[in-house]
Design brief:
5-stranded mixed beta sheet, 179 residues, single chain, alpha/beta, 13% strand
């Protein structure tokens, strides 16, 4: 819910060094790692950074065109530098762990570009972390569930036009399909 980059960074500078539990940083909170690339190393890989391509470019200090051309390379750079798992959205989701492992989740559709959709994805990842998944597992599964939920909604509603609040309702059905 941050709207001001400076205010977000100042708050997170006070809060995050004290955090000892797994966490998800989403959207504008990524500005903290832009300013403090080593700021979450104390969590030893138990943090997930969930970002869109623009946020990934800022965090990686790279041009947006370069990130668009090589999103996995940018995600790996941030993951290794900051020792966080990076879940980068876009046409495909690129996940990179600090130890060099990487995954690509394909699909989801353009409808997932709706405002609030990334927040839903971050919430899915946070829920998986809370249930005991490690950061990489939570990011991969969170990205997968989010993508499949988007595909289900695209089939039901249309390629675009659904709301972010409709995405979580699809998660139980996606889990049933997988299990």
């Amino acid at each position: 819910g941050f709207g001001d980059v400076g205010a977000a960074v100042r708050l997170l500078e006070e809060l995050l060094p004290q955090v000892r539990t797994p966490l998800v940083l989403d959207a504008l909170a990524s500005a903290y790692l832009t300013e403090h690339p080593e700021g979450l190393r104390h969590l030893e890989g138990r943090a997930v950074l969930s970002v869109n391509p623009t946020e990934l470019a800022r965090t990686a200090h790279l041009d947006e065109d370069r990130v668009a051309a090589e999103p996995l390379a940018a995600a790996r750079q941030v993951a290794q530098r900051s020792r966080v798992v990076v879940l980068a959205g876009g046409p495909d989701k690129h996940i990179a762990a600090p130890d060099g492992r990487a995954w690509v989740v394909q699909g989801g559709g353009h409808g997932l570009g709706v405002s609030g959709s990334g927040d839903v994805q971050a919430g899915i990842v946070a829920g998986l972390l809370a249930r005991g998944a490690d950061a990489a597992q939570a990011a991969v599964w969170g990205g997968y569930l989010h993508a499949r939920a988007g595909e289900r909604l695209a089939h039901q509603v249309g390629g675009v036009g659904f709301l972010a609040r409709e995405i979580p309702v699809q998660i139980p059905a996606v889990l049933t399909e997988v299990g």
